[in-house]
Amino acid sequence: MATQIELTRAGEGKHVAVLTLNRPERLNALTRVMEGELRQAIEDLDRDDTVRVVVLTGAGRGFCAGMDIEELEVLPPGDIRAAQWMRPFDMNRRADYQTRYGYFPAMRKPIIAAINGPAAGLGLVFALYSDMRFASEQASFSTAFARRGLIAEHGIAWMLPRVVGPGHAADLLYSARKVPAAEALRIGLVDRLYDPERLLPETLAYADDLARNVSPRSIGVIKQQLWAVPFQDLAEATRVANEAMYASIQSEDFKEGVAHFIERRPARFTGN
Q: Which residues cross the membrane (predicted)?
């Protein structure tokens, strides 16, 4: 059976994994097959120590147009809570991320969404669950839910205000209007905006810089900090950071971080 996800490797040391949603004729609208393949691919890449950064993008003109309408029409209501999607993630078993798409924050490696076209509904959910969002000037965004008789699903009502602020979040969720790329950059929905031809090369260059020059151990810990801190007060965040710093100072990557700086040479981080 043909796969609906394409996996390639990029970068100087091939440490960047590129996951491409691959149904271009449907603007990469999500099916249950694609959803299962995406989750399995990310879990496999998390266990692969040769991978340090993941870039998620779409084939053709779209990033992801949401759930395929043909599947949505026959989707049983219970699918939203089906056990097959809810198996536990790592993330120190944090209850906040034991959810359908919790495997995005649970992954130890950064996920950068390279949004090349329309991102609607679940496509926007995938973008928000990614660590960073780089977009093409041809990208557009829509929550879509209210125009389908649905609601703000998969925690997006919690995530979106933290990205764009409560007023913009209410606008995007209530109206489900199409937001052009320039406005998405202005309100903070995306972090960088590129000419369409430059989106993937620039995103891969950034990802490769992370893969070659930054400690993968450090990124893994910092990512976990960033996703955990919304549920912590300052005292807990500081205590957790102090414990992580104590462990970091004893790591091989810390020794290498000091050595390559003193010796003025490229870093050779191992992630240990």
A: none
Distance between CA atoms of 95 and 5, rounded to whole angstroms?
28
Cβ-based neighbour number of residue 247 at 10 Å: 11
**Beta sheet of 53-58, edge-to-edge order:** 5-10, 16-21, 53-58, 111-115, 132-136, 192-194
The residue ranges of every structural domain in the chain are 5-211, 215-263
Other CB atoms within 10 A of residue 32 CB: 16
Strands 179-180 and 140-142: antiparallel
**Which CATH number applies to 5-211?**
3.90.226.10
Task: Look at residues 181, 180, 172, 99 and name the one whose alpha carbon lies nearest to residue 134.
Answer: 181
- Tell me if the pTM is above 0.85: yes
The answer to whether 196 and 116 are in contact (CB under 8 A) is: yes
**What residues are paired with 10 via a beta bridge?**
16
Q: Say what the pLDDT of residue 99 is.
A: 80
Q: Cα Rg for the chain, rounded, in angstroms?
A: 19
Evaluate whether 52 touches 108 at the Cβ level (below 8 Å): no
